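User: Predict the full complex structure for these chains.
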Amino acid sequence: MSRHTDDYRWDGEVASLEYVFARIDRSGRYRSLIDGVEREFAVTTSTDYEKVFRASGHLKAGEALRSAPELVAAAQAHWHAEGGNGCRFAMYLSENRRAFGWESWVLAERGDPVAYALAVDERVRACLEPAEVDVISILLPHVEDPGRFGDVVRALGDLESWNVSTQGEETDASHGDLQLLGLSLAIELEHWSEVLGFGPAAPLAYTRRAPFTELAIRAKPPKRPRVSNHRAYMADIEVDVDRDTMAAWWRETEQRRAERLGDEHDARGKARVTTVVQNEAGA
Amino acid sequence: MMKPMTSPSSRDLAPDETPWRRFNDEFFSLHAGLSVAPDALIEGLVDEGIELIVDARPGRDADAAAMKAGCDLAGLYYVPTTATQDLPDVARFANLALRHKTCVVFDENAEDLLIAIAAQKSMVAVPLFPDAGR
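Assistant: Here is the predicted structure of the two-chain assembly.
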């Protein structure tokens, strides 16, 4: 069997494993700082998921979680649904993936960033036209290092219909000089979809510290053209909630985002930013 | 402007009363010759809440730039096409119509396209302003 055929499409829902996720003991911690006030957040790591999957018998002895694509996808979906990325709408969408057309693919090991990029490109392009797909998640469980993720993002930027750009630079006390990379993809009706990146390690923004590396892509343009900048992003997705709930969720999202990112990670957590890499000189 | 004939399922309801649906089950059609001024055509479709125009009038090339500019200004998508029935194009139009409130503007040479788009996703084509441009 070729590596290509090992790619896995997850068609599940978080709810089917809720009884497993209920036993999670979150071991990850990060502290954000707003105007000198520190807040601590507990987050679920891939190790936490691995423990509960093993305890429940879903993961066999000696089997690594990243080698079980259906569990990788379920864990990542649960992380979004429990609010890991700070967005209240993402929580709801991830709890109801089929209803809102959130499609997940878990890619097998490719090794080379260019090979990964070609595989991502092939999977994503196939999902752009069908009306049913609103969001495409490409999970890369074998890409754990942020630098390697950055290489995949840059390799995608070299392909037709993709674009990678620098969205800013920062200096981090722990990681030195950082570059904020923004990846976008040409989609239907002359719009460009801003790709969100997630991954398990610093220097990614706190709201992007997920159990596994992921590219999450809005597959469709907005209802009406955004003539001034042709941007497409997750906030365009329509949900079946009333106006009051919508307003409450926006407020909740803004508050969660501000608290979790703090002053230090505000820029690197913006929608235009896919991932953060160390500058080569500082790496 | 002419009296609208939009289907009652999506009209006569305030935005808050419209039941949430992820996909449309209908799209709109407008028979219009090239003699209809782009501005007037677009204005009428804006009034109907149309989000996307598929322009299926063969020979409309001279007007395409004006239609595109007018649609950009009005906040509508403009998708020009010839009256082809090539499957990829029909599928694309049908997929767009599922997601955007769409009007297919056509003339006598493109009537088959309406049928093909509707058949592609089991949608209903609802005529707008049936007397316009005749």
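Chain A touches chain B at residues 99-101, 129-131, 188-189, 220-221, 223-225, 227, 238, 240, 242-243 (CB under 8 Å).
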